[in-house]
Write a structure and sequence with these properties.
Blueprint lengths: L13 H10 L5 E6 L8 H5 L3 H4 E11 L4 H10 L3 E9 L14 E9 L11 E3 L6 H12 L4 E4 L9 E4 L12 H11 L16 H5 L3
Parallel strand pairs: 1-2, 1-6, 3-5, 6-7
Antiparallel strand pairs: 2-4, 3-4
């Protein structure tokens, strides 16, 4: 059977990938790495992603989240049929800015599993930025160490990564309503607004959330 991630192939369309898994042309994925564009889409569209159809019956899922969306992401995991197990803290080297609260200089990669499938290896639960702020570059090797293949990355920005299937966008039926760059600009304008605490998962987030989309 063909493996979609066996070489540095070009990024694949979400709908085509789901179709190929359904047809048995490529196997379901043992591990999925997700960096959701939280600020760019309605929460319901994340819930509607067919993660169950792409994942093997026993699989690992690694998903980036910041403190703002932590509770909602646990709902996502449950909806997709995964159970949260632990987390990796990625320490960023970004410069501090003035603000009203602790500035988040870290991001969290939640680890969840489907079925009884422990990690292949046990590693420390934190790592420091190593590759110019590109968190997915930093964690891919670690994901491959602890989680089974094939490996899939959703919302990836790279053109190709050896050993990985990269799927950069939503399914056609779930395309984002807004242009991501416009939302990031709005985040910067509203970063110091006191009403920022009331923002929900389907609305624009603060500048700390924009950093999660890099």
């Amino acid at each position: 059977m063909e493996t979609a991630s066996s070489s540095s192939a070009a990024p694949v369309e979400f709908d085509d990938l789901v179709s190929r898994v359904h047809k048995g042309e490529v196997p379901p994925f043992g591990s999925i790495l997700i960096n959701p564009p939280y600020a760019a889409v309605k929460w319901e569209r994340l819930l509607a992603l067919p993660i169950q159809e792409l994942a093997a019956s026993k699989a690992h899922l690694h998903i980036w989240v910041s403190e703002r969306y932590r509770r909602e992401v646990h709902d996502l995991l449950t909806h997709w049929g995964f159970k949260h197990r632990s987390a990796l803290i990625w320490l960023s080297a970004k410069k501090l800015h003035k603000g009203s609260y602790y500035e988040e200089c870290h991001e969290t990669l939640l680890f969840a599993s489907r079925g009884n499938l422990p990690m292949n290896d046990v590693l420390k639960s934190w790592m420091t930025e190593a590759k110019n702020g590109h968190k997915n570059e930093d964690v891919r090797d670690q994901v491959q160490l602890v989680s089974p293949g094939p490996w899939l990355e959703l919302f990836g920005v790279e053109k190709s990564i050896k050993g990985w299937t990269i799927c950069p966008a939503f399914p056609a039926a779930l395309e984002a309503d807004e242009v991501l760059e416009d939302l990031i600009a709005e985040d910067e304008d509203q970063a110091e607004s006191p009403e920022d605490d009331e923002i929900g998962p389907s609305e624009t987030s603060s500048d700390s959330e924009s950093a999660a989309l890099n």
